[in-house]
Amino acid sequence: QLLALPLLLAAWLGAAEVNLHLTAARLLIGECPDLQGQQDEVVEIWHSFAAAVLGAQASSYVNPRSSLEAQLRLLSAFLTSYPVPVLHLCPGSLMRYFKKAGDAALAAGDLQRCRYLLQWGTTYRLMAVARWYNRLTSNPSWNKSTLPPEALSFDPEYQAVYDLALQELHKKLSVRPHYLPASIPQQGSPHSRVQVLAVCLYQGDVGLPALAEGNHRRYCQHRGYSYELMRSVPQGGWEHIDALSLPREPHYWKVQRTLEILERE
């Protein structure tokens, strides 16, 4: 079943399959380091999908509307066909695919769809940044003096383009931020059941967790909420994530920890 979509994509690619497939495989080496060591069928899924997306993207130079429709069909089919562990192997690639689809929407004159695609792509953009940061800080021998300058920033071109594009689209579409109304400090009550849970698993970095904790605590004190910060996963915690066939990432542990607290309460 996992190979069903690649077979369909192969038929769609036709004569261009070989060149696109090779190009896609080479791009994924740099975009998706987590793909290395995966099962052959999983690697083939991503290679075939990336090749099909490249073909759809190329057609935007002659027919943006047709290219947009093809890219949306491929993204929809891919995101609804496979389990989360397969989909989230390459968030950096998905970040790029949504950006390119947004470009096609823009070329086709569909600003609203472009904004929607870029905001969806931002989900994978944030996931890719977190994956890069965790990988960068996982090796004690890696630091600013031992890493090349280009490794100290995650894909700055795409980060800047995403920010600039959304900023301009929000201006053009008159999207206005909803400012939070000012409020006076509140006191917690015995009947209050509001608790803020923060999970900050950055290893070897004391600055970011300290900054987050300070901001969180001030907010909770202002609102009268209780606050809990977790800097590490307790023994047996990752096994819960493994049992759900999810990657060992903070995103999933936050959800698991929240469920445990709700069940306890």
Structure characteristics:
single chain, 265 residues, mainly alpha, two-stranded parallel ribbon, 11 helices, 2 strands, 62% helix, globular
Architecture overview:
- It is a single chain.
- Strand 1, helix 9 and strand 2 form a beta-alpha-beta unit.
- The protein is 62% helix and 4% strand.
- Helix 4 runs antiparallel to helix 6 and helix 6 runs antiparallel to helix 7.
- The protein has 265 residues and is mainly alpha-helical.
- It contains 11 helices and 2 strands, in the order H-H-H-H-H-H-H-H-E-H-E-H-H.
Q: Largest sheet at a glance?
A: 2 strands, parallel
How many beta-strand segments? 2
What structural class is derived from the secondary structure elements? mainly alpha
Helix content: 55-70%
The dominant shape is: globular
Write down the secondary-structure element order.
HHHHHHHHEHEHH
Largest sheet: spatial strand order: 1-2
Alpha-carbon distance between the termini?
A: 41 Å
Task: Report the sheet-strand fraction.
Answer: under 5%
Query: How many helices in DSSP terms?
Result: 11
- The mean pLDDT is 82
pLDDT under 50 segments (min length 5)?
Answer: 14-18
Radius of gyration: 22 Å
SSE topology:
Blueprint: H1 4-13, H2 17-31, H3 40-58, H4 64-79, H5 84-87, H6 91-107, H7 111-136, H8 156-172, E1 195-199, H9 207-223, E2 226-230, H10 237-243, H11 250-264
Helix pairs in contact: 1-3, 2-3, 3-4, 4-6, 6-7, 7-8
Give a brief rundown of this model.
The protein is mostly helical and 265 residues long. The chain has 11 helices and 2 strands, in the order ααααααααβαβαα.
